[in-house]
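Renewal narrative, Specific Aim 1. Our central claim is that a sequence can be written position by position from structural information alone. The example that follows is taken directly from our test logs and has not been curated for this report. It begins with the structure tokens describing the chain, in the order in which they were read.
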């Protein structure tokens, strides 16, 4: 039963059929609203720490240690809720300041983020994983290992923080390089 509950979040994250569009289609439409081509998908733009973080998440989700997988999923879902909530306003403001989207174009570009926030998709996913963890503990007659959860959550944030540091450094270097080009012009 715990596995079936937890699978609900994966099904929605991988499928998320929203008005006939999959999660991947919504994301591609989101990126396409800001970029002229698909070059953002090139491997050269993937930060090594981001790749490592993605692999670590995947590995945690499919390990034999079921609580570890559930804790990882739980933390990802609640983190995603915060991330999408902040991103919705940030991208909305970005569009208003730097793009000339019509109201319909803006709505279409932001659909990917909005579907994660509007109906509290990520909060619902978090609650489903909490229920899955409780069901697992009941079925195995075990208790939640709060120390394991704490250690995992700290590691999650440290790994994600490393990705953000590398991303910030990359963006800063790109901005600085562009400033030099502008000054040289």
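The sequence written for that structure reads:
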């Amino acid at each position: 039963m715990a596995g079936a509950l937890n699978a609900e979040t994966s099904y929605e994250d991988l499928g998320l059929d929203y008005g006939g569009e999959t999660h991947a289609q919504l994301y591609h439409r989101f990126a396409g609203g800001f970029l002229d081509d698909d070059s953002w998908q090139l491997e050269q733009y993937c930060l090594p720490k981001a790749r490592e973080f993605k692999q670590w998440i995947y590995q945690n989700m499919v390990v034999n240690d079921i609580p570890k997988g559930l804790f990882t999923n739980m933390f990802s879902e609640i983190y995603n809720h915060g991330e999408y909530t902040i991103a919705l306003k940030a991208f909305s403001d970005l569009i208003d300041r730097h793009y000339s989207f019509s109201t319909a174009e803006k709505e279409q570009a932001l659909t990917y983020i909005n579907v994660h926030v509007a109906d509290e998709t990520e909060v619902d996913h978090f609650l489903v994983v909490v229920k899955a963890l409780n069901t697992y503990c009941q079925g195995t007659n075990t208790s939640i290992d709060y120390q394991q959860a704490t250690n995992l959550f700290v590691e999650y944030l440290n790994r994600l923080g490393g990705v953000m540091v590398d991303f910030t450094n990359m963006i800063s270097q790109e901005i600085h390089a562009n400033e030099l080009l502008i000054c040289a012009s």
